[in-house]
Design goal:
outer membrane lipoprotein receptor (LolB), chain A, single chain, globular, alpha+beta, 9 strands, 3 helices, 9-stranded antiparallel β-sheet, about 40% strand
Length: about 170
């Protein structure tokens, strides 16, 4: 039970620190996918070291989206949703509300991965993030290593754009 909350907390901490979006970004000629699914793993070189893995489904954008985490056999570990002005974390039968995804992440852990960069990485764009070394690998794989601040952490993702089911 605590493990599921810890997994959700770690992921939330990795999904914090979103940058403010442009006021009116120019429309892209072809929209990138807005639904991804795959597997992620996180290792934090703390004392004691921490590691966990989960299947994920991420949909939406930096401003409004949903992240579902599940464990073996499809057991739901956490469900995060966010829109401008509210972020919600549901895990272990409890739901908590926050003013933003940034606030949710800051409540979980002080070291976070920028959400905007994560969405860029999933779309195949290497975006520089202070304190992180990022490698996009063939086959929609990512290895991101946080070197600063300590403790160091490693995020690995394997993903594919997901097909939306017909209504």
């Amino acid at each position: 039970m605590l493990k599921e909350l810890w997994i959700a907390a770690c992921l939330c901490s990795l999904l914090g620190c979103a940058s403010r979006p442009e006021v009116n970004p120019p429309p892209a000629p072809q929209s990138p996918p807005s639904l991804w699914q795959g597997r992620l793993s996180v290792r934090v070189q703390s004392d004691p070291p921490q590691a966990w893995a989960a299947d994920f489904e991420l949909s939406g954008t930096v401003q409004s989206g949903r992240l579902k985490l599940s464990g073996p056999l499809g057991i739901q570990l956490a469900d995060l949703t966010w829109t401008p002005g509210v972020a919600q974390l549901s895990a272990r039968g409890e739901t908590r509300y926050y003013a933003s995804l940034d606030e949710l992440a800051s409540q979980m852990n002080e070291h976070a991965l920028p959400v905007e960069a994560l969405f860029g990485w999933l779309n195949g764009r290497t975006q520089a993030v202070a304190g992180w070394d990022v490698q996009l690998e063939p086959g929609q794989r990512l290895m991101a290593r946080r070197t600063e601040p300590l403790p160091t952490a490693e995020l690995r993702l394997i993903w594919a754009p997901a097909e939306r089911s017909a209504p």
